[in-house]
Amino acid sequence: MDEDFAEFVRAALPGLLRYGHLLTGNPHDAADLVQIVLEKIGSRWGALRTAESPLPYVKRAMANTNISRWRGRRRENLVADIPEPPPFMQPDRLENEPLWQALAALPPRQRTVLVLRYYEGLSEAEIADAMRISRGTVKSQASKALASLRGRLGSLVGAEL
């Protein structure tokens, strides 16, 4: 493995996991998302390391990969057997935080629009381009998401949202 790439991963991993958590709504899917994207990036690291900062590229790749993943999940998968219950997992430390619960409860498209808008600071046009949807859809998804958050969190934060 290229030592520059290993150093990039060591430095960026905590932030990428937080960003992935925001995009996916849970830490387990976030870790999968980060791993998938870093595998792709690692194979092309030679071309990327010359960039001023590869972090924005990696974050954009994470958002795009997450969008592709939830688009693929919309299809129903029928199985013959009931899956085994998962082994005991350590509870997420943010599991009981009202904002995280409300954000995780949003549909994936609405959550992605909010994360790109308010966490990444992208414009409506940039979000529309990244998600391959219209600006009007970005606006409506953001409006619905914020209304949902207000409904869930209104008693906690008043009218600040």
Automatic annotation (TrEMBL):
<dbReference type="InterPro" id="IPR013249">
    <property type="entry name" value="RNA_pol_sigma70_r4_t2"/>
</dbReference>
<feature type="domain" description="RNA polymerase sigma-70 region 2">
    <location>
        <begin position="9"/>
        <end position="75"/>
    </location>
</feature>
<dbReference type="InterPro" id="IPR013325">
    <property type="entry name" value="RNA_pol_sigma_r2"/>
</dbReference>
<keyword id="KW-0238">DNA-binding</keyword>
<dbReference type="Pfam" id="PF08281">
    <property type="entry name" value="Sigma70_r4_2"/>
</dbReference>
<dbReference type="InterPro" id="IPR036388">
    <property type="entry name" value="WH-like_DNA-bd_sf"/>
</dbReference>
<comment type="similarity">
    <text>Belongs to the sigma-70 factor family. ECF subfamily.</text>
</comment>
<keyword id="KW-0804">Transcription</keyword>
<dbReference type="InterPro" id="IPR014325">
    <property type="entry name" value="RNA_pol_sigma-E_actinobac"/>
</dbReference>
<dbReference type="InterPro" id="IPR013324">
    <property type="entry name" value="RNA_pol_sigma_r3/r4-like"/>
</dbReference>
<keyword id="KW-0731">Sigma factor</keyword>
<dbReference type="InterPro" id="IPR014284">
    <property type="entry name" value="RNA_pol_sigma-70_dom"/>
</dbReference>
<dbReference type="InterPro" id="IPR039425">
    <property type="entry name" value="RNA_pol_sigma-70-like"/>
</dbReference>
<dbReference type="Pfam" id="PF04542">
    <property type="entry name" value="Sigma70_r2"/>
</dbReference>
<feature type="domain" description="RNA polymerase sigma factor 70 region 4 type 2">
    <location>
        <begin position="98"/>
        <end position="149"/>
    </location>
</feature>
<protein>
    <submittedName>
        <fullName>RNA polymerase sigma-70 factor (Sigma-E family)</fullName>
    </submittedName>
</protein>
<dbReference type="InterPro" id="IPR007627">
    <property type="entry name" value="RNA_pol_sigma70_r2"/>
</dbReference>
<keyword id="KW-0805">Transcription regulation</keyword>
